């Protein structure tokens, strides 16, 4: 469940491209992105996804914003709609801004006059909701009789905690800049300028000296500075960073000055946005202390806190980074917004340093932990992106905290802005997807045409068409995975250390090449029609995690090129995967299946499935062919079992349960979510009561009620013992051990308490066993009294 205590969601934005700034700034990133407006993607992988985003996701999210009160918030603030009802969270305004941002990028990729018109009328409403001095925050302007408890009794007083006023401003600026760049219209930009001018008047040395509770306004202000040339915006962005810490919480990175931070901590989306904002300031001001801090934090994340999928933020407690090497799989939080933030941040790190290792992290995130956030259909979404499941995870049609949904909406159409970058006469080719692009170098204009079946095939053909023959340098990224290094550092390594040839040809002739910071450097005189071909070794690799990651011990993950694979129920025997074991030396094949999941490579390998047996501890193993699909494509066929990390050691396998009384019973409970029912009879003993790495059943948010769970046996059995393992996620979560419970059995259609011969106990972190006088029955029921102020849950309930 999403921790709603302190959560406030998250979000993000994009850097992509800055076309036609009104004024040229003196300092900026040494390497400049090639604007999304100049890159026309036409491949078979991303282009269809951007098409789904344009045709399904954007209209869907706009409709959901309307249906869920977000448009009404603006209408009420504008006094165009009666009443003072507001939607759920004070940051709900940002979903509308992010939808506008996505729509803007999308209209640049493909014209859509109807969408253009509806965005125009939306902007008119937003303008009407803005107060005369520029303040724009519907939750205050509506002036509700009972104001939302997060907003504070005056402007800004709750900003450092929960009001999200500046957070709303940040997303407004990102949307305004995107809309201006894509359409040339100043309507939203003017609203943003009026708002940013209010911030300049309000915050700064000698004015209000407070930091944003949820970062993003820093990024937005840097973008506003680039577009308007108003240096006050840049100064304010830097002020908002410098005023952070040291007396706040680690939760939102305010426990130290930003330049004194050297490890990733706290809420992962806030963190990723802050590091991105710091990179912007480092580029725009030349501040070396900022750079030193984010360089250290980057190394900390990449060597200790990054999922193989590129996801960040391991724990749902505070939606935060975990400790070093704390990377649980089933309970992985890895929020979609954090993956998007990780892409923003790594792109900026590349623009600062020109090293391909940042694009390696970006690409890994993009193809795996980010893309998993949206369904193939474009209208179902993940907030956390776990790396293992036992049916308990499912994509949502909408989430009241919709940050991840609107973030995905705006990110996907901005993708073309990440393919290339340039520095005078150096052209960086960072991502591989078929496209045609027009890029201006110092030596003149160059049209670049990429043709490739990446990520399924490793061949990339690049045709170089300069307007006039001339000397410049192509820097072609050689991905880390092609050099046997999945990520920088030693967090992940390939099991087989064989290296595969990597060939680069120019006009059909193999060429040796120099590499610099991970790029093949091709400096020569280029003429129209010159062709570079890169042949990357698209091999199936087994990836191992550092031994310090305890959750991945005895396991490997399949990877091919940039794609991380997983085992999912529908492709495997009995729809089970947690019981699968694959030998370390097993040979794996990959084949393209055009009709599966919109076309994917499927990996097949010989493996075994493991099963518990009654009356013996030995595990039964049966041979089977195991199939793996790309991780991003899982959960498109309903809830299922899934795992990224595949056991090669028997100790890591979770065998199929033996047929016990519990496992063959039908479960019912005073609960609607039937997907939790299997958890209590899966025969997995948790490490402790708060262990979220195994499924559990819970009644949250119910409290102080009497609840039940019930086993209907497959036949009459004589039973005399019950053992139950309680779920208790204190002090952060909402579940605690119950006040009391009792066992009843079914006798002549009535529930009768058993006569216990040992006392009922309610202890944490172990099984609570109770024995009772034997009863022959067809059903047992447990009645549970929830604590007054909390809910409760059950990991496992066994009977015999
Ligand atoms: Zn989110």
From TrEMBL:
Residues 1-24 form the signal peptide. Residues 542-647 form the Non-reducing end beta-L-arabinofuranosidase-like GH127 C-terminal domain. Gene3D superfamilies: Galactose-binding domain-like. Residues 38-416 form the Non-reducing end beta-L-arabinofuranosidase-like GH127 catalytic domain. InterPro entries: 6-hairpin_glycosidase_sf, Beta-AFase-like, Beta-AFase-like_GH127_C, Beta-AFase-like_GH127_cat, Beta-AFase-like_GH127_middle, FA58C, Galactose-bd-like_sf. The keyword Metal-binding does not apply. Keywords: Signal. Residues 692-786 form the F5/8 type C domain. SUPFAM superfamilies: Galactose-binding domain-like, Six-hairpin glycosidases. It comes from the Bacteria. Pfam families: Beta-AFase-like_GH127_cat, F5_F8_type_C, Glyco_hydro127C, Glyco_hydro127M. Residues 427-538 form the Non-reducing end beta-L-arabinofuranosidase-like GH127 middle domain. The keyword Metal-binding does not apply. PANTHER family: DUF1680 DOMAIN PROTEIN (AFU_ORTHOLOGUE AFUA_1G08910). This is Beta-L-arabinofuranosidase domain-containing protein. It comes from Mucilaginibacter angelicae. The lineage of its organism: Bacteria, Pseudomonadati, Bacteroidota, Sphingobacteriia, Sphingobacteriales.
């Amino acid at each position: 469940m999403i921790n709603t205590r302190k959560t406030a969601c998250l979000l993000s934005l994009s850097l992509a491209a800055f076309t036609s700034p009104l004024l040229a700034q003196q300092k900026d990133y040494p390497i400049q992105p090639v604007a999304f407006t100049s890159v026309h993607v036409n491949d078979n992988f991303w282009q269809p996804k951007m098409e789904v985003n344009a045709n399904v996701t954007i209209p869907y999210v706009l409709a959901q914003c309307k249906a869920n009160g977000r448009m009404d918030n603006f209408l009420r603030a504008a006094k165009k709609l009666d009443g003072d009802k507001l939607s759920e969270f004070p940051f709900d305004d940002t979903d509308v801004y992010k939808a506008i941002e996505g729509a803007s990028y999308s209209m640049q990729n493909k014209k859509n006059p109807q969408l253009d018109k509806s965005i125009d009328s939306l902007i008119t409403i937003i303008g009407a909701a803005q107060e005369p001095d520029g303040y724009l925050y519907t939750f205050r302007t509506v002036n509700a009789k009972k104001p939302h408890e997060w907003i504070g009794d005056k402007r800004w007083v709750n900003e450092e905690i929960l009001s999200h006023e500046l957070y709303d401003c940040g997303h407004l600026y990102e949307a305004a800049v995107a809309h201006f760049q894509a359409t040339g219209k100043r309507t939203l930009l003017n609203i943003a300028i009026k708002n940013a001018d209010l911030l300049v008047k309000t915050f700064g040395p000698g004015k209000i000296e407070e930091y944003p509770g949820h970062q993003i306004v820093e990024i937005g202000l840097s973008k506003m500075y680039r577009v308007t040339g108003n240096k006050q915006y840049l100064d304010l962005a830097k002020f908002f960073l410098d005023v952070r810490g040291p007396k706040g919480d680690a939760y939102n990175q305010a426990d130290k000055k930003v330049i004194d931070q050297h490890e990733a901590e706290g809420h992962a989306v806030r963190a990723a946005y802050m590091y991105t904002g710091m990179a912007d300031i480092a580029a725009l001001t030349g501040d070396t202390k900022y750079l030193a801090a984010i360089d250290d934090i980057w190394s900390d994340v990449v060597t200790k806190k990054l999922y193989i999928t590129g996801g960040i933020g391991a724990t749902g407690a505070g939606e935060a980074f975990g400790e070093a090497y704390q990377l649980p799989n089933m309970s992985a939080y890895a929020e979609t917004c954090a993956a998007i933030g990780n892409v923003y941040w790594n792109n900026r790190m590349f623009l600062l340093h020109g090293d391909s290792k940042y694009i390696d992290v970006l690409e890994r995130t993009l193809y795996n932990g980010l893309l998993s956030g949206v369904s193939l259909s474009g209208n179902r979404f993940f907030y956390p992106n776990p790396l293992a499941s036992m049916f308990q995870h499912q994509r949502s049609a909408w989430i009241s905290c919709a940050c991840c949904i609107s973030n995905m909406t705006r990110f996907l159409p901005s993708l073309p802005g990440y393919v290339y970058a340039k520095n005078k006469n150096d052209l960086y080719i960072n991502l591989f997807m078929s496209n045609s692009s027009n890029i201006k170098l110092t030596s003149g204009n160059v049209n670049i045409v990429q043709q490739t079946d990446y990520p399924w095939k490793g061949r990339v053909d690049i045709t170089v068409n300069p307007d006039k023959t001339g000397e410049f340098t192509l820097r072609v990224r050689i991905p880390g995975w092609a050099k046997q290094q999945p990520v920088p550092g030693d967090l992940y390594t390939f099991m087989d250390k064989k290296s595969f040839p990597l060939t680069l040809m120019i006009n059909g002739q193999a060429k040796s090449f120099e590499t610099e910071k991970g790029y093949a450097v091709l400096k020569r005189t280029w003429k129209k029609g010159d062709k570079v071909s890169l042949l990357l070794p698209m091999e199936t690799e087994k990836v191992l995690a550092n031994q310090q990651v305890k959750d991945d011990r005895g396991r490997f993950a399949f990877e091919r090129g940039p794609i991380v694979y997983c085992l999912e129920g529908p492709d495997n025997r009995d729809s089970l995967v947690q019981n699968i074991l694959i030998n370390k030396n097993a040979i794996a094949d990959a084949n393209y299946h055009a009709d599966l999941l919109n076309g994917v490579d499927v990996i097949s390998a010989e493996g075994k499935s493991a099963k518990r047996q009654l009356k013996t501890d030995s595990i039964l193993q049966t041979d089977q062919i195991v199939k793996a699909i790309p991780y991003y494509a899982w959960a498109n066929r309903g809830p299922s079992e899934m795992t990224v990390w595949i056991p090669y050691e028997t100790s890591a396998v979770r065998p199929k349960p033996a047929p016990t009384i519990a496992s063959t019973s039908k479960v019912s409970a005073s609960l609607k979510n039937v997907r939790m029912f299997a958890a209590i009879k899966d025969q997995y003993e948790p490490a402790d009561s708060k262990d979220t790495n195994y499924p559990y059943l819970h009644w949250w948010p119910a409290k102080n009620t009497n609840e039940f769970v019930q086993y209907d046996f497959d036949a009459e059995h004589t039973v005399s013992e019950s053992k139950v393992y309680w779920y208790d996620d204190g002090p952060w979560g909402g579940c605690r051990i119950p006040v009391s419970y009792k066992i009843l059995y079914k006798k002549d259609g009535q529930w009768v308490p058993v006569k216990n011969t040992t006392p009922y106990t309610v202890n944490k972190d172990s099984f609570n066993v109770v024995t009772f006088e034997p009863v022959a029955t067809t059903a047992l029921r447990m009645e549970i009294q929830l604590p007054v102020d909390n809910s409760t849950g059950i990991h496992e309930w066994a009977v015999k």
